[in-house]
TrEMBL record:
Protein name in the entry: Fructose-bisphosphate aldolase
Taxonomic lineage: Bacteria, Bacillati, Actinomycetota, Actinomycetes, Bifidobacteriales
One protein family per Pfam: F_bP_aldolase
Cofactor mode of binding and number, as noted: Binds 2 Zn(2+) ions per subunit. One is catalytic and the other provides a structural contribution.
Taxonomic source organism: Bifidobacterium actinocoloniiforme DSM 22766
Residues forming coiled coils: none
Length: 357
């Protein structure tokens, strides 16, 4: 297993788009959940993406420090050391869902740090960063995205953007489950006009098609994956008919299967397998997985505690069993449980067994 370089990360994303599969992007909050994600990718023989949110970065710095930049840098340093001990798959590190209020105190300092790394001839700590301007008017969202795209190029990283609102709640950010959950084909054209289609710098786009953060019973989430195909087609058609700048039109013409965008799927929990599969056919190359792996990790802890109740607790004045309340005992169960869910995600998205050689 190796940590991706910018060149290999680009190859990963291009291979997924051409091959019709996607990578799970697993959110982690600790070294234990990081190790569980690595274990899962290794077992699935899949390349993949490991990411931290603003809350995860804060938590990684410690409950008293609350420094997102320190937590992010410490996480990336630890991850690079651990990942280097594995062989066979490639993993990329990513920061997830940076809302406007966190931009100047989190992602912009990280990009500045990475530009300094690149200037010294080093690889950047992270391979991509997400700008979540979905709460802003589209024009303002894209204006900031264009600035960040330039900064990302200098840092040898890839930008991820979001257009439209994802419902539910994540890290204190919430959105209602209504018509704002659905991007439009015209949104895709506006994104291409503002950011190009890779010729101005590489980026991934999360257009919303009913996505919701969190866990819901089947039927609550109303996905319209066909909307992604309409966005791709409308943008490709606009390029062919002169509705985009010449350089952007050439980039669109070079995209495989008339899919000019590298797409991202947010909020996949509660989605039916056939909906996920259909979304992937429209150019999804990255799907965020968080709620389900959180549950899998905690379920492993719960199973251990309930099975060994009188051993993990000193019940009725007894002494318990050190070997069972040792954090490594329940930690291994939790990591195995989460790793199994990562394997499932790789299989569902088609990346299992397709690690780059």
């Amino acid at each position: 297993m190796t940590l991706a370089t910018p060149e290999r990360y680009a190859l990963m994303l291009d291979s997924a788009r051409r091959g019709g599969y996607a990578y799970p992007a697993i959110n982690v909050t600790s070294t234990q959940t990081l190790n569980a994600a690595i274990q899962g990718f290794a077992q699935a023989e899949s390349d993949g993406i490991i990411q931290i949110s603003v809350g995860g970065a804060d938590y990684l710095s410690g409950q008293r420090l609350h420094d997102r930049v320190v937590g992010s840098i410490a996480f990336a340093r630890f991850a690079s050391e651990v990942i280097s001990g594995y062989k066979g798959v490639t993993l990329a590190l990513h920061t997830d869902h940076c809302a406007p209020q966190y931009l100047d105190g989190w992602v912009r300092p990280l990009l500045a740090y990475e530009r300094e790394q690149v200037a010294r001839g080093e690889e950047p700590l992270f391979l991509s960063h997400m700008w979540d301007g979905s709460t802003l008017p589209l024009e303002e969202n894209l204006r900031i995205a264009r600035e960040l795209l330039s900064e990302s190029q200098a840092a040898h990283t890839i930008l991820e953007i979001e257009v439209g609102a994802v419902g539910g709640e994540e890290d204190g950010q919430s959105a209602e489950m209504d018509e704002r959950l659905y991007s439009s084909p015209s949104d895709g054209i506006k994104v291409a006009q503002a950011l190009g289609l890779g010729e101005e710098g590489r980026y991934m786009a999360a257009f919303t098609f009913g996505n919701v953060h969190g866990a819901y019973k089947p039927g609550v989430v109303k996905l319209r994956p066909e909307l992604l195909g309409r966005i791709q087609s409308a943008t490709a058609e606009a390029a062919a008919q002169g509705g985009l700048p010449e350089r952007t039109a050439r980039a669109a013409a070079e995209a495989p299967d008339s899919k000019p965008f590298l797409l991202v799927f947010h909020g996949g929990s509660g989605s039916r397998p056939e909906e996920i599969a259909q979304a992937v056919t429209h150019g999804i190359v990255k799907m965020n997985v968080d709620t389900d792996t959180q549950y899998a990790f905690t379920r492993g802890v719960a199973d251990h505690v309930f099975t060994n109740y009188d051993k993990v607790l000193k019940v009725d004045g007894e002494v318990g069993a050190k070997s069972e309340y040792d954090p490594r005992a329940w930690g291994r169960r939790a990591e195995d449980s989460m790793a199994a869910r990562v394997v499932q995600a790789c299989q569902q998205l088609g990346s299992a067994g397709r690690a780059l050689k």
